[in-house]
Design goal:
By secondary structure, the protein is an alpha+beta fold. The chain contains 16 helices and 15 strands. It is elongated, with a radius of gyration of 28 Å.
Length: 427
């Protein structure tokens, strides 16, 4: 027997119905916000992800040389492919561009609960504007899309990397700033992102930060109030634009119907070099350590891929974690069967069964019929098993009178109806 590869999953009919239902729920919100669907290849050149995340990412990828000797990778995420698509084909399109996507991604990771080698990602990218209102709309889109799935217990967290960076520089004496390289700046961001405060302190000490400066910086990381954050920069004129933009974004977010109480968290760093400005995450606390459902913000990728610099922002939703969280919340999917089953009591009417099934399908009904020449009782049992809403039974006596029998599979009630009135009784 050949088994599935480690870290992958098979989805049965019931699971696929749930996944497609949730996918459509989120897509409904994307479309309401005027985002339009695009798709990119499952395969990309390995270089794309090296440019975006550095050579260290190679160990996390499924990568190989194709028959032409080219370095190829299965996509580990979808933001870089969308930006590659934009740079390659879409730079001259009217802005802003609002895209959404849904697709499978691959990482050579250690499989565990909530983390697979093949996983699914939904997300949106906004190209052309990173104004406070545009960022607020993007965050609202992510928030409302996740709420639309039926999830109850979620938490929105919003930070700002421009303000975080300025506070880092305030924590380092001016005499050491000249030695503070971009690489070390990135290291601090990553330590903050991992919540490794002890290592972060050691790195700041290396650059001669005093205990008072370190303590003040740690206090800043715990800030969750816009007034407190403003107070940290009361003597910094260069931070005022960032502060005002952050306030405008929060105000706009309220207008989009997103509660902003206790959403500010200045310790969100995202840990990736290309993020700038506002960043955000949406969590499901019930998932424990792997609780992040969504992450995003404004970023700069286009110039790295050879395009003209332009404001960009986006987010990605871990679709599998959304499904897992719904399961944890004991969500009841609102499914109601629309399937119609057609069967005959007489083999002489088998042709009529096919004709009726075809006609009903043409009229827009979902229809199945007996393909196994089952006996009457077994055919009805099968109709129950496949979840048929109603069964149409063709019997010779009724057929000769231009009638059929409709059986409601939930109540068990049966009634004779005229063939020409059949469709009205199926709605």
């Amino acid at each position: 027997m050949v088994s599935k590869p480690r870290g992958t999953r098979d989805f049965d009919v019931a699971e696929m119905e749930k996944r497609r239902f949730i996918q459509k729920q989120m897509e409904t919100i994307f479309k309401r916000f005027a985002y339009k669907e695009i798709a990119t290849p499952t395969l990309e050149h390995l270089e794309l992800f090296e440019i975006k995340s550095g050579e260290n990412i190679i160990d996390e990828l499924y990568s190989f040389k194709d028959k032409g000797g080219r370095d190829i990778a299965l996509r580990p995420e979808l933001t870089a492919p969308v930006m590659r698509f934009y740079v390659e084909k879409l730079q001259m399109e009217t802005k802003p561009l609002k895209f959404y996507y849904f697709g499978n991604c691959f990482r050579y990771d250690r499989p565990q609960e909530g983390r697979y080698r093949e996983f699914w990602q939904m997300g949106c990218e906004l190209i052309g504007s990173c104004s406070p209102g545009a960022i607020a709309e993007l965050i609202a889109l992510a928030y409302h899309a996740i709420k639309k799935t039926g999830l109850i217990n979620i938490r929105l967290r919003i930070g700002n990397l421009n303000l975080l960076e300025k506070q880092i520089r305030k924590a380092i004496p001016s005499s050491s700033l000249s030695d503070f390289s971009p690489a070390l700046h990135t290291d601090i961001f990553r330590l903050i992102d991992k919540n490794d405060i002890e290592s972060m302190e050691q790195l700041l000490k290396k650059y001669k930060s005093s205990p008072k400066q370190i303590a003040l910086f740690k206090e800043f990381l715990q800030s969750n109030n816009i007034d407190d954050i403003t107070n940290y920069f009361k003597d910094s004129t260069e931070a005022q634009t960032d502060i005002e933009d952050f306030k405008k974004m929060l105000d706009s977010l309220e207008l989009f119907g997103v509660p902003t109480r206790d959403v500010i968290e200045m310790n969100i760093a995202r840990g990736l070099d290309y993020y700038t400005g506002t960043v955000f995450e949406i969590e499901a606390p019930q998932l424990g350590a792997e609780k992040q459902l969504c992450g995003g913000g404004s970023y700069t990728l286009v110039p790295l891929l050879g395009g003209t610099e332009i404001p960009t922002a986006g987010f990605a939703i871990g679709f599998d974690r959304v499904m897992m969280t719904l399961e944890r919340e004991n969500y009841e999917f609102p499914f109601s069967s629309e399937l119609i089953y057609v069967m005959s009591l007489d083999r002489d009417l088998d042709r009529e069964v096919i004709k009726m099934a075809s006609q009903l399908r043409y009229s827009g009904f979902m229809v199945d019929f007996d393909l196994m020449n089952r006996a009457i009782s077994r055919s009805l049992k099968y109709a129950n098993k496949i979840g048929a809403k109603k069964t149409i039974i063709l019997g010779k006596n009724e057929w000769d009178q231009d009638k059929v029998v409709i059986k409601d599979m939930q109540s068990g009630e049966q009634q004779e109806v005229k063939k020409e009135e059949l469709e009205a009784f199926l709605v």
